[in-house]
């Protein structure tokens, strides 16, 4: 039975790297990319380790004495956005979480997910095309990215 | 709120490796027919990052379109080629490709034109629908094919950075990775300028033409893997902003003088500044240009995540095969060498001086 409110990264479409407490996320399939501020990055790392949303909230309450209702709502909103962006999906594994050895950010600020869509024109995301008499496809030029050069 | 797992974007397709190899053989036959029709094969040899690459053209129609940006790497006395590419165009030779063997439906082509089910790690196949060009690399025998329907349809960006996909595949399998970035520097230390188009990367690199800094690349370079990444020159093209109000003295040197309104002007450094080009430099820092509007140029440390954000998406999305492994390689790079913001001032003469000072400090 799956853990309630437990999620996992939407691999292989979604890849991420965390460097010095900040995370860069790329959706390889959609041509979108993102970054997370330190609080969001910390939560992301816990999601990677299959720590459930409820457990993350519990952890934050224990570690940040001044965690407000607004802060907790911010965490929930982050989960909602990560799901809406299809960066995370419901965890299909029932394996227990392996809590990583992480140091939580010194202070907790609202987690923020920044989204960038300026690379999507480099991908031909619409596969519909015509075929000419020689068997090759034709696609309107405006559908295709012309490279960044 | 609970979501179900996201479905595969496309239905699974059967791998047709054997058919792909048969198709390569048929393309070889077509190439020989094209060469016969065009009066023979014209060879051009280049050395890229130490590897011999031979371009075999059926006729001459494609030579002026695909070789100028590689001229600085040309060799008169060729070494045994490590990679051989057969190239022809349909219009001048009258020889088209054999009909593609794959089914054609909405799922046949990937986001970069990859032939789904036929493009594999043994034989790579992409069809560029923008200008009707087929690129095929037979990984096992280091041979490739480039066919285009009409050389007149080759866009300016293919002339400025030709055969990107084939070279990306083949060189990538040898530990040399296409990076969307400019590389400049002094002999002992180079800087990799990263950022999406319009970030100031190309302008920064071009300001170095009037300095003691050498130039490896403008828009794309090849980078070996950490721990001691080396940037290798690939194309000698350098692009200018369409309005080019910052570097007007370069306008008379533009290669595509008769360009269309949507074309970016570019110059070929080999033709005008050959002494500035160097084949490679050791990369000692990553610079993330940032246009400030202030007069002075400054440089200060930036977090690795910010550098990765500037480097990885524009590199990964420009070429087929963007994978988690490539992303990890780029993350390893920003962890390996120091990263800085290059806050660009309006006084362009300061830019190369600031970079050179930073490089000399790193190299000391």
Largest sheet of chain B: 6 strands, mixed
Q: Helix and strand succession of chain B?
A: HEEHEHEEEHHEEHEEEEEHEEHHEH
Chain-averaged pLDDT of chain A:
82
Coarse shape of chain A: elongated
Low-confidence stretches of chain A: 140-149
Give the distance, in angstroms, between the N- and C-terminal Cα atoms of chain A. Answer: 50 Å
Specify Rg of chain A, calculated over alpha carbons: 19 Å
Report on the structure:
The complex is a heterodimer of chains A (149) and B (364). A 4-stranded antiparallel β-sheet of chain A has the order 2-3-4-6. In chain A, strands 1-5 form a two-stranded antiparallel sheet. In chain A, β2 and β3 (22-27) form a beta hairpin. Chain A is of the alpha+beta class and 149 residues long. In chain A, 26% of the residues lie in helices and 21% in strands. Chain B is an alpha+beta fold. Chain B has 2 domains: 17-172, no CATH class; 177-363, Rossmann fold, CATH 3.40.50. In chain B, α8 (304-318) packs antiparallel against α9 (324-336). Chain B has 10 helices and 16 strands. In chain B, a hairpin with a 2-residue loop joins β7 and β8. The model of chain B is unreliable at 1-12 (pLDDT under 50). The N and C termini of chain B lie far apart (56 Å). The chains are: A alpha+beta (149), B alpha+beta (364).
């Amino acid at each position: 039975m799956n853990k309630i409110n437990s999620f996992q990264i939407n691999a292989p479409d979604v890849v991420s790297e965390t460097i010095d407490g900040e995370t860069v996320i790329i959706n390889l399939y959609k041509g979108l990319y993102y970054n997370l501020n330190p609080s969001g990055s910390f939560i992301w790392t816990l999601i990677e380790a299959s720590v459930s949303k409820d457990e993350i909230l519990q952890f934050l309450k224990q570690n940040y004495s001044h965690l407000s209702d607004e802060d907790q709502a911010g965490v929930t909103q982050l989960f909602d956005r990560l799901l809406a962006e299809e960066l995370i999906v419901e965890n299909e594994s029932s394996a227990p979480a392996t809590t990583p050895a992480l140091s939580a950010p010194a202070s907790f600020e609202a987690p923020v997910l920044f989204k960038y869509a300026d690379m999507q024109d480099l991908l031909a995301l619409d596969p519909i095309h015509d075929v000419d008499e020689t068997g090759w496809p034709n696609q309107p030029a405006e559908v295709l990215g012309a490279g960044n050069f | 709120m609970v979501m179900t797992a996201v479905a595969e974007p496309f239905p699974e397709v059967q791998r047709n490796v054997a058919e792909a190899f048969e198709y390569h053989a048929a393309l070889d036959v077509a190439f020989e027919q094209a060469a016969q029709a065009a009066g023979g094969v014209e060879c051009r040899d280049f050395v890229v990052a130490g590897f011999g690459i031979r371009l075999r053209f059926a006729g001459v129609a494609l030579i002026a379109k695909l070789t100028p940006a590689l001229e600085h790497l040309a060799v008169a006395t060729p070494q045994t080629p490590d990679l051989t590419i057969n190239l022809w165009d349909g219009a001048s030779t009258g020889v088209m490709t054999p009909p593609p063997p794959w089914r054609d439906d909405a799922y046949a082509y990937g986001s970069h034109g990859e032939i789904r089910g036929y493009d594999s790690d043994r034989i790579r196949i992409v069809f560029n629908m923008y200008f009707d060009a087929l690129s095929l690399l037979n990984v096992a025998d280091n041979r490739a094919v480039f066919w285009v329907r009409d050389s007149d349809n080759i866009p300016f960006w293919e002339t400025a950075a030709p055969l990107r996909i084939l070279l990306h595949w083949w060189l990538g399998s040898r530990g040399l990775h296409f990076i969307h970035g400019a590389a400049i520097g002094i002999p002992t230390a180079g800087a990799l300028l990263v950022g999406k188009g319009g970030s100031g990367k190309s302008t920064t690199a071009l300001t170095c033409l009037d300095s003691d800094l050498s130039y490896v690349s403008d828009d794309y370079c090849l980078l070996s893997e950490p721990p001691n990444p080396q940037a290798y020159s690939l194309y000698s093209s350098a692009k200018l902003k369409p309005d080019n109000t910052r570097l007007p003295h370069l306008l008379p040197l533009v290669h595509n003088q008769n360009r269309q309104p949507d074309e970016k002007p570019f110059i070929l450094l080999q033709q005008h500044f050959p002494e500035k080009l160097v084949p490679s430099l050791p990369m000692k820092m990553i610079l993330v240009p940032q246009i400030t509007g202030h007069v002075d140029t400054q440089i200060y440390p930036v977090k690795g995540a910010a550098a990765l954000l500037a480097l990885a998406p524009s590199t990964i999305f420009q070429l087929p095969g963007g994978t988690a492994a490539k992303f990890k390689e780029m993350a390893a790079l920003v962890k390996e060498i120091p990263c800085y913001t290059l806050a660009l001032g309006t006084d362009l003469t300061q830019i190369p001086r600031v970079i050179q000072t930073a490089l000399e400090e790193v190299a000391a």
